[in-house]
Amino acid sequence: DVQLVESGGGSVQAGGSLRLSCAASGYTYSTYPMGWFRQAPGKGVEWVAVIDGGSSYREYADSVKGRFTISRDNAKNALYLQLNSLKIDDTGMYFCATVITDGYWGQGTQVTVS
C-alpha cells in the first residue's frame, strides 16, 4: 500500500526556519513527482511546491518562492521542504502528496508561526 508520512512540523517564531520531511513507501518512489500542500485554519488547500522524479524540475507558489525549497532523496524514498523566513501566514497543516493511479496524501504535519 502507498504510504506517505510527514514529520518535522512545530512551533516557531516569525523569521525562523523548519525542515519538513515526508517518508514514502509502497511504490516506485523515484518514478513520480511529489508535491507539498498546506491548509491554513478555516481555509482551503493551497499548493506549495512540486518536484519531478529526477529533481530536474521544481516549481513554487508565489507566496513561498524564495523562502521555501523542495528537495528529494530517491535513495531514501524521502521528500523534504525547507521553510525559511517563516511568516505568520505560513501557519497551517502541511501535506505531501503524489499521483500514481490515484492521488495519495499523508496525514500532515502542523506548522505554527507566531
Topology of this protein?
Elements: E1 3-7, E2 10-12, E3 18-25, E4 34-39, E5 45-51, E6 58-60, E7 68-73, E8 78-83, E9 92-99, E10 103-105, E11 109-113
Parallel strand pairs: 2-11
Antiparallel strand pairs: 1-3, 3-8, 4-5, 4-9, 5-6, 7-8, 9-10, 9-11
Jot down its keywords:
single chain, 114 residues, mainly beta, 7-stranded mixed beta sheet, 4-stranded antiparallel beta sheet, 0% helix, 53% strand
Could you please describe the fold and organization of this structure?
A hairpin with a 4-residue loop joins strand 7 and strand 8 (78-83). This protein is an all-beta fold and 114 residues long. 0% of the residues lie in helices and 53% in strands. It has no helices and eleven strands. Strands 2, 4, 5, 6, 9, 10 and 11 form a seven-stranded mixed β-sheet that branches. Strands 1-3-8-7 form a four-stranded antiparallel β-sheet, with no helix packed on it. The chain starts with a strand and ends with a strand.
What would you say about this model in short?
The protein has 114 residues and is an all-beta fold. The protein is 0% helix and 53% strand. The termini are far apart.
- Specify the structural class: mainly beta
Number of strands: 11
Helix count, per DSSP?
0
Q: Mean pLDDT, as a whole number?
A: 96
Largest sheet: 7 strands, mixed
Please compute the radius of gyration using only Cα atoms. 13 Å
